[in-house]
Each structure stands twice: as C-alpha cells, then as structure tokens.
C-alpha cells in the first residue's frame, strides 16, 4: 500500500493538470465579442450646391393715373433654378446658414382687362433670385428651418388703351421670407421642400399713349420648390 501511495498521488496530479488544460482550451476557443462602436450623428456643417424646381404664383396690381379702376394679373408658372450656400451646426443643434438662389420662370404671362373701360394690361415675370439667411434646428437627418432676406424679380408688360399702347419693364428688389424642411438622404445628398413669399413693392412706369401717361405696378409672389443638394 505504501508503494502505491506515491503512484496514486502522481496520477491524481496528472489528471488535475489535464482537466485544467482542457478547461483553458475550451475558454480560449470561445469567440471574443467585438467592441461596440457608436454610429456618428449626422452633422449639417458644410457648403452645398443644388437645383430647385417648383411652381410660383404671383399677384400684380396695375393702375393708371386718372382711371378710377385697377386691374390684377396672375403671373404664375413653373420655376427652375439653382442654389448654393453654407451651414454651420452648433453644439446645441441649432443650424445657421446663408444661401443664394437664381431661377427662371416659365409661361408666367398674364393678361387682364380694366372694368368698364376698353383697356387691357399684360405682365410677365421672367426670372428672379434671392439671398437669404437661414436658421434651423437639427433633428438627426431632419432640418426644419426658417429663412429671410432680399429678393429680385425681373418683369415686363404692356398697357393698351383706346388710341394708345405702351410697354414697361424693370428689375425690382424686395424682401422675402419663408421656410422649409431638409432631409439628408446620405452624408452628401440632401433633399428639401421650400416655401417663400416675396414682396417687390410698387413702381410707376412712364407709359405714353395711355391715360395719365403712366402705369403703376405692384408685385408680390409665392413659390413652392423642391430641391436636391450636394453637401461637401
């Protein structure tokens, strides 16, 4: 029995060592879970360029000095243009920016007649543009914003009266206000839907050959445009 004791002790130690090695092998074979990497939030800071398409409708009120009635035309039509700007996102998710736009207007010619007198007037708003400051609040990839600034509108028209006719044209500066909603489809492609109201005030044009020799024009417009931008 005494001879067997060292042998049994040695066998026990060997068995324990083998079990420990097997346990370590099993532990080492277990896959290591990858470390979690949080997805970076979208940031609106950067420059961008893009295109716009939509519809513009307007209201042009015309009056002849010495004629008791006035006329209203509706120089409305489709609009196509482009824009360029820059945005900066603050740590509190407020987003400030500046933007310029230019657009051509199609088929905006509008004719009207003066009540109770044999007279017609025509006006057409051919192109325009604006420069705006924007302020929004980023909700991830969504950006609701407001905008305001200065606007330009080019128009031409014609006043026809019994015995005379005269044309007029001008490029008017005014103010604009509006807003919209932008959405970042990818880190570089941004789409948006934008509304703007622009007021160009009134101006009196010399129109010899019509009563009073002048035509007074007041113009304001509304526009809804969808845009697609590339963000740098």
Q: How would you explain this protein's 3D organization?
A:
The protein is mainly beta. Helix content is 11%, strand content 63%. It has an eight-stranded antiparallel β-barrel with strand order 1-3-4-6-7-8-9-10. It is elongated, with a radius of gyration of 36 Å.
| DSSP E strands, number | 10
Order of helices and strands: HEEEEEEEEEE
Structural class: mainly beta
Order of adjacent strands in the largest pleated sheet: 1-3-4-6-7-8-9-10
Q: Note the total helix count.
A: 1
Q: Whole-number average pLDDT?
A: 85
Main β sheet profile: 8 strands, antiparallel, barrel
Helical content class: 10-25%
Terminal CA distance: 87 Å
- Over all CA atoms, what is the radius of gyration? 36 Å
* β-strand amount: over 45%
Shape: elongated
Give the low-confidence spans. none
List the helices and strands and how they pair.
Layout: H1 4-29, E1 46-63, E2 70-73, E3 77-89, E4 94-106, E5 110-113, E6 120-137, E7 142-161, E8 164-184, E9 189-206, E10 214-231
Antiparallel strand pairs: 1-2, 1-3, 1-10, 3-4, 4-6, 5-6, 6-7, 7-8, 8-9, 9-10
What is this entry, summarized?
The chain has 232 residues and is mainly beta.
Provide key terms for this protein:
11% helix; 10 strands; mainly beta; 232 residues; eight-stranded antiparallel barrel; elongated
């Amino acid at each position: 029995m005494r001879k067997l004791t060292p042998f049994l002790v040695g066998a026990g130690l060997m068995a324990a060592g083998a079990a420990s090695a097997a346990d370590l092998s099993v532990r080492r074979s277990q896959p290591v879970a990858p470390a979690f990497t949080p997805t970076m939030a979208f940031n609106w800071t950067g420059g961008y360029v893009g295109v716009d398409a939509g519809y513009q409708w307007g209201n042009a009120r015309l009056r002849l000095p010495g004629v008791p009635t006035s006329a209203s035309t509706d120089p409305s039509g489709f609009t196509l243009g482009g824009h360029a700007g820059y945005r900066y996102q603050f740590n509190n998710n407020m987003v400030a920016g500046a933007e310029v736009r230019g657009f051509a207007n199609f088929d905006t010619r509008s004719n009207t007649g003066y009540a109770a007198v044999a007279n017609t007037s025509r006006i057409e708003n051919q192109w325009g543009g604006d420069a705006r400051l924007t302020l929004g609040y980023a909700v991830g990839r969504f950006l609701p914003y407001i905008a305001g600034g200065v606007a330009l509108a080019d128009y031409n028209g014609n006043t026809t009266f019994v015995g005379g006719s005269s044309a007029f044209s001008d490029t008017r500066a005014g103010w604009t206000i509006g807003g919209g909603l932008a959405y970042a489809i990818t880190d570089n492609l941004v789409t948006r839907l934008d509304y703007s109201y622009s007021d160009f005030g009134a101006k009196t044009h010399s129109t010899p050959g019509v009563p009073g020799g002048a035509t007074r024009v007041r113009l304001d417009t509304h526009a809804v445009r969808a845009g697609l931008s590339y963000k740098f």
